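Suppose you are handed a protein chain with no further information: no name, no annotation, nothing but its sequence. What can you learn? This example shows the usual starting point.
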Amino acid sequence: MSEEKTKKSIIKKSINRKIQTASFEQLDINIEIQEEVEWSTPKERLEKTEKVTTVLVIDFIKTFNKVVEQLNIDRQLGKITSVSIPKSNEENNKKEHDFDFLGESNNG
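A reasonable first move is to predict its three-dimensional structure. Written in structure tokens, the prediction is:
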């Protein structure tokens, strides 16, 4: 049984939101996260990327709430509904997310 090779990736994500606080006045809220993750399979990398996203969203919501509270701004977060990937597209894209496959030559 061969041991899977561990790889590293740097995952960088950000959320930006611009809210109008008064006439001709806007406030930008920007949260950015960068993490280095180790992974052995594309599935494991995706799972770790999802965890980075979860941390980013939690941090953004807490920061947003604190900013509007401290500045006494009457704003609420908008609701975002998730979009699911159709099963057929997900299966067709499996090779696209297989990083070993991406490095293979098609010439041969």
